[in-house]
Amino acid sequence: MGTLRIHFTADDLTRVTLADQPDPLWEVVFTRFRLRDRLRPLAFRHWFAALHAEPARTARMRPGALLLDALAPAGPYFPDFLTPYEAGRGLGHGLEALRRTPRRRLAAELGRLARHRPLPRWARPLAEGDARALDRLADALRDYHAAAVAPFQASVDAAFAADRDSRAGVVLGGGVEALLAGLGPPIRWTPPVLEVDYVVDQDLALGGRGLRLVPSYFCQRTPLSMADPGLPPVLIYPIPQRHRWRPAARRTGGADLSALMGANRSAVLHALDRDVTTTQLARLLRVSPATASRHATVLREAGLIDTRRDGTAVLHTRTPLGTALLEGDVAPSPPPGPAAVRRR
């Protein structure tokens, strides 16, 4: 794990902006990352289920998924041309910008990717700027978005709006520096540098260009930025877990909670109304400490528990969001209704 250091000037602080809508191509890339997660985030469980509810949905996603698996693999790099700045204005603008990517840039970025992993033969025309290859990529990403993101847009938009409203309130109360300081882990404001726990060590000098902050629904854990420091500066950061949950229409019973997260994780959440170590948790659940730790990781990433170290012990406790879930006050965002699932 490295650190991204974003260097601000006084001018840059006056040019920090919050995106006014989710970026559809960043969300496309992040959904592919989420589908590769070894531990599936609880807040996305309904999303996972709905994606696989109909074979036609996964069939429509497949061409884009195969392209993304090659072009945006797990690792320290994927090409910037997949997430053009113009996509901040909407999917159509982003795909048009992708189609217009200069040949020299395609060759450079795909050449850089090839240094990390071998590329399939079909990537060669893309690297050469072949218009038909770019059209195929854009069409596949459009279909992937239509199947994996668009049916869930109401949930994405609601979480995005909640995060944006909370950030706007911080700016009104304390200014831009309060906004930067309040982005939360893994982001730290140490004026005049914004430090981000990152996949590599990297410095980004804004040089008066400012910074666009983009909340992302499907981003988890690690914020991302453009690999090329010469491109318009953006920082894509995960929306806090509390914004991915909605007020519950009815009280959640124990059976419903077990169906959502499994009996063991439900038991963990019930047990954590006080500080409990991983070893104590394992004894309560009658599982191994490694299994108890995995359950705690899933719940922590969902924002339902907090974990802290106290000397040699690791202590877990339930968060207010976890308590609200137990009491039936919140629930995960629902999957789309039948009409949305069948949309083409």
UniProtKB/TrEMBL annotation:
Residues 255-330 form the HTH arsR-type domain. The keyword rRNA processing does not apply. It holds the Pfam family HTH_20. Coiled coil: none annotated. The keyword Glycoprotein does not apply. InterPro entries: ArsR-like_HTH, HTH_ArsR_DNA-bd_dom, Metal_resp_trans_reg, WH-like_DNA-bd_sf, WH_DNA-bd_sf. CDD domains: HTH_ARSR (cd00090). Keywords: DNA-binding, Transcription, Transcription regulation. Transmembrane segments: none annotated. It comes from the Bacteria. This is Helix-turn-helix domain protein.
